Each structure stands twice: as structure tokens, then as C-alpha cells.
Amino acid sequence: MFRNYLKIGFRNIIKEKFYSTINIMGLAVGMACTLIILAYIIHETSYDAQHSDVDRLHRVNMTAIWTPGRDIMSSTPPSVAQALLNEYPEVESVLRINTPGAMQVSFVQDDKVDRAFNETGILAADSNFFDFFAFDLKEGDKRTALKEKNTAVISDEMAEKYFGDESPIGKVLLFGDDRIPVKVTGVTTKQASNLHFNFDFLLSIYTNENIKKMEWSWIWTQVVTYVKLKEGTSAAALGSKLYQLAPKYAVKAFQRLGIDIDEFQREKGQLNFYLQPVRDIHLYSANVGNRIGPVSDVAYIYIFASVALFIMIIACINFMNLSTARATVRAKEIGVRKVMGSQRIYLIFQFLTESIMMSFLATLLGLGILEIIRMTVIESIIVDFEIQLFSDPILTIFLLLMPLLIGIIAGSYPAFYLTSFNAAGALKGNMKTGKKSLYLRNGLVILQFVISVTLISCTVIVYDQLNYFNEKNLGYDKENILVINFAEKLGPKLESYRNKLESYSSIKDATVGMSVPGRASFEDFLNPVGSSDDKIPVATLKIDEHYIDAFNIEVLAGRDFSKSNPTDINGTIINETAMHSFGWTIDNVIGQKISYYGESQYEVIGVVKDYHFAPLRFTIAPHAFFHIDSDMWGDFRVVALKVDAQNAQNVLSYAESEWKKYAEGAPFNFSFLEEEHARQYESERRTGKLFSVFTIITVLIACIGLFGLAAYTIEQRRKEIGIRKVLGSPVSTLVLMLNGGFTKLVLIAFLISIPVAWYAMEQWLQQFPFRIPLNIGTFILGGILAIVITWLTVGFQSLRAAKANPVDTLRDE
């Protein structure tokens, strides 16, 4: 019997080639998108799962004492690790990872530099690093690789970059301006993409001598601390006791700095520590100042899971509508089978078998569509993302069960609906479906377009927000700014290099500073002279007298730094927020003095208008400029050039050629500030692109469903259309009549979608302190697009029906 079902099913699929193709294509596209989203979700939720004992691994976060506007950061002082071991027997072992920062790495062979590059992927870690994290070595011994000072494990990419096909084990690399010799003791295999951090170079921790020097400090927050808890330990119970740590261990460290810890905590909040499971770092660190590795947000997992569900709902609705649209074609088949004695249950099995067959064919086609989407779209959006259908057990099970489940779900309504007709009515072709069936089909179409219009509106708002990031006036010029990094390597020749570049005709301005707007800031506590109670965290930046003009930052009061004023070395220029934080006004701020821990005093010589020195994810915080030659901390240097856009490449070539004359072999490293700014929002941009891709596909599938309902409606009303045409109705009137019903359904969907989309986008925009206002026009645009799509989809069917010869439709009468 089952064999007969299959035979009849294949015959019907082949007989109705056009509608079978549409049916299968709709399901195939839906399945392909669902598989892609599922693979993405599995990838995002699999971060750090490969570490042994991962359920016992936690990162130690702490009160964010340096970053205004945040509550928690992942950086800790180096002394925290030992204090945890001493104080809590629940802690089995601790690990510290330090970020030494970018530095030059070179390989010397035959007494000359063979290769030299500026590298950023540098970490330093305790010797038990490989007891915590599952980085495999293809060369070297995990147990001893980081035991000695001045040793390093490097990635396989760096091994090839510096040593080619030769084994790097035992060879020496030189790090930093001091050319610290570091012996290579290990090489990793290709590092997995689903780890919350990766590295190019992993130094033994005391290779960075600052670690040993600062192990007493409780505010030098330059390491990330991890703990491995003993088996059976409750992380929640231990976390509730961590408030005891600072009062017991940090007091002496603060006294050494001349700081009262109680006063410090009154200003910055309780100095506390928190445990975060390593498995949670990737998805649950959006509001944590993350020191190493990129993070995502679990909210996007829920968003894309919802999109996948919506896509499959729409695909199944399409299948139902397209099946019922062709009901009249199979009316006589149903009637004959019933007259010949077929029971309804067997007819249901017949239709479910056909549905499952189509679902399996759709799955096979969907795998091909999946590969096309992956190669043409997904790989350009998501880096290091692979879809491994048959190596991941969840994907494999889903792939095997999905055709069966979708076939049953999508085919159940048509199966029960088609077999409900009585034999006599079916043989006559008189298949009146009733209002309930009509309401159901219309309700399904409304649901499709509620989802579609909501996704269209949300996509427009996401792109409006991203466009806002690009177009908002940041308070400084970011266009046509060429940044030459690691300029501190020029030493005393830096000013000569700047002067040389400034003389080039296509360079409008040249300036030297510690950093440029948009990059990480350097923060410390400052307070007005004479007031020890008003210490506030201030982002500090050392600049020269050309900086403010080069970036076109507006001066509201006072003046800029000037070479003609030698005392400017003890001056400062603050922003409006800093001025208000110190309790000053624009009328009395000039001449005021601020103190750095009571050691140095700086006179306020100017106030600049608030500008966004940090990305737009953050509010504007207090900020202060100091002269490049001041005694404030900071030895990093960049040269920023405002260039003629048409000659940017010529400027770049000139800057590099001059660098080689001044830099004595140091690599030339550059970036364009506008490109840096764009990369700051790469995560949101990538999500927006993915969202738009799946929105387009969702609308496409919904159009297939609308096409199916149009086919069904026109099939039901073909005699009515013929009679109207015989009575003189023009084609345009018939087209408007047929399209009007669908337009009403889309309008209803549009009205329902407005509050849904408004709420969803209001929640999404909450994460940005600077955001676009929600505008009803955006939602109206989504509705208009949906109506246009509806008319384009239904118009062809309506026009063909309206132009049909009434003789052909009325001959049965």
C-alpha cells in the first residue's frame, strides 16, 4: 500500500509541475535559511565548550573603576589571583592573562633583521595556561612551554609568517623597542573560531616585567584573572563571599599610594569582584568591559531564532495555501476514490505521503540553496563560520527529522481539508468550503504579512541606526585622516618627521598625539586643586599644539596649546563635561587648576566643545588634553595627517618613504580614521546584513504564499469572473476587484505589525545612548512596500484571469 502511495505521489508531483515546483521551492528556501540560522546559533552557543572542566572555569570580573558609565569590567589587578587562592579553599587554581599591547616583533638572522612586523595579537599568561584552555600544540610541550621567562607559544600562522617551512622551536624573536629576546617553545594548531579569545603570540607572563613590578597593586588593572573551582563548589556561594576580598587585601596597596580606600569606594562604588562562567563570556558580556576577544549578545540569538521560526511558519503556510489552491483540480480524484470505497484515513495518508515526499525533495533542493546562500552571502558577512551539517549531531538530527516533521505539519491541513469533501459534491466539482476555511486562509496570509512587514520595518530601522552612526556629527573631523601608528619608535626624530610631512603639498595638517578620537582612552583620577573630595575619572590624552586644529575640534573658551607659551607644558584643555563635573562654569573655568593625586598641578587654559572621543555606544565622559611634553603618563605616539582626498595614495607613499629614512628598520603601520570608525560598528553592521538577507527571503516566501492564495481565490471565482466579463465588466475593474481583497489583508497585517515592530525596535535601540527616534513614517514605508509587493505578486494572476475567455470558464454551465 505504501508503495502505491509513493507511486501516486510521484505521478501527482509530475502532473502538476508548475505548482509542485513552487511548493517545493518555497519549502526549500525556508529549510535552507532555517539550517543556516540554526548552524549560526549552534556556533554562537558553542563558545569555549571544548575546554576540559569548562563548567568549573570562571572569569573574575570587578567593579569598573576606570570606565565611566559601566558597572563591571573584566580587567583585574595582578594581585587578585593570589588573594583568591589564599582566602578561598574552594578555588583549585588561578590563571592570569596580560595584554602587553601592540609591539614590534622581529626575527634576526645572521646579525641582521630578517623579518619585522608590528603585531597586535600578543598576550602573556601564567605557566598553567594550557591546564585551563584547550589550545592544542603541534610542536612543543604544554607542561613546560611557558615555565621560563622570555618564552612564547606562537600560532601556526605566525610560525609560517616568520619562519616559513622551518620549525620555529628554539628560535628567538625580538619583542618591542627594547628588543627583548623571546625563545619560541611551542606552536599551536589552527585555533578554533569559537573561543572567546585567540592569540598570535602567548608570552610567559613575567616576560612583561611590569607584572612583577605591579603585583602589589590593587588598581593597576592590566590582567584578566580566571579561576578553576574545586569539584562540587557552588560558584554562586563563592561569589557571594568575594566582597570580603578588597577590605582584607587592598588596604595596604591603597595606603602605599596615599589613597584612603573608603574614600575611593565612596567615589567609585564598592570595589567588588564577580564570577562569570567562561561559557557565558561570549554571549553575556555585552555590558562588561571586555579586555580580550570580541563578544556578541545573547539577544541576537533570540532574534535569529525567532526569524528562523517565522521563516518556517511562512513556508508551511505557503504549502497549505498552495495545496488548497489546487483542491478543485483533484476534486474528481477524491470523489472517485470515495465512491470506490476508499476510507478517509487512507486518503489522509495519501496526501500526507505526498506532502512528506515534497518535503524530502525540498530538503535536497534546500541543501543546494543553502550552499549557494553560504558562498554568495553568508561568507561575506560572517568570518570563520562554517556550516558542518553532518559533523554536528544537532544539525544532523535536525536535517533527518525536519523533512518528516515539516511534511506532516505543512501537509496536515490540506490532507484533512481535501478529504473532507463529500463524494457527490467532489464529482460535480461543487466544493464549497465555507467561511471557516476562508477565515483560516485569510488569517494565515495576515500572519505571513504581519511577520513580513514587521521584519521590513525592523530592517529599515536597523539600517537607519547604522547610517546615523556614520553621519552623526562627532564633534571632530574623521574624513581624510591618515594615522601613522607606533610613531614612538621614531624617538627624538618624531618632530622632524612631522615637520617633513607637514611640508608636503597634499597634507593640510600634521599632528602628534598619544592616540586619535575613537580609540581606547587613558583614564585616571583628577580633582580640582583645593578640593580633595571631588576626584573624578577623566579620560586623558597628550597632544601637541596642532592636534585640535587638525581634527577641527571647537574651542569654546580660552585657547589651544601654543609653542610660544612654554608654560603650556603644565596646562590642560578640558571638555564641557569635565568642566561641569568639576563644578565650574564657562565664565570661571579658565585659570582653574586640577591635580593628579596631589603630585602635579595643571592650569586650565581652554575648554573644547564635547565631542565623541569614544564610540557612540558610550555617553560622553569627562576628558582632558595635556601637552605632549607634560609629565602625565603615556609614551604611545601616533602621527595624524589631514590629507587631500584625491591624493591620499600619494601621501601614503610619501609618508612611508620618509618613515624608512627616519625609523631605522621599524615597520610602517598606518590606518585611515574613517575606516577605523566604520569597524567600531562591525558587529551591528554584520547583524544588520544578516537580518536584511533573511528579511528579503522571508518576504519572498510570503509572496509565494500570496501567489498560492491568489491562485485559489481566482480558481474559486472563475465562473463569477466569466459572468462579470460577459455582462461588460472591463479588465481593469476585474483586476481591482481581485486585488482589493488581498490589499485589505495586507493593510490589516500592517496595522497589527506597527506595535509589534515598534516594541521590538524600542528594545533594540535601548542599548545605544545615541540613537534615532522611532518615526511612524518608517512603519508606513514598510506597509507601502508590502502593498507594492502584494500588487506585483497578485497582479499577474489577476490580469491573466481577467483576460481569460469567458467561454472557457462558463462552458460547464
Automatic annotation (TrEMBL):
Pinpoint the ABC3 transporter permease C-terminal domain residues.
306-421, 693-806
Per UniProt, subcellular location reads as: Cell membrane
Question: Which keywords does this Swiss-Prot/TrEMBL entry list?
Answer: Cell membrane, Membrane, Transmembrane, Transmembrane helix
Q: Give the signal peptide range.
A: none
Q: Which Pfam families match?
A: FtsX, MacB_PCD
Does Transmembrane show up as a keyword for this record?
Answer: yes
Question: Major place of localization?
Answer: membrane
Query: Does Membrane show up as a keyword for this record?
Result: yes
Q: Which InterPro entries match?
A: ABC3_permease_C, MacB_PCD, Macrolide_Exporter_MacB
Write down the membrane topology.
Multi-pass membrane protein
Domain MacB-like periplasmic core residue range list: 20-241, 446-611
Tell me what this protein is called. Answer: ABC transporter permease
Specify the species: Splendidivirga corallicola
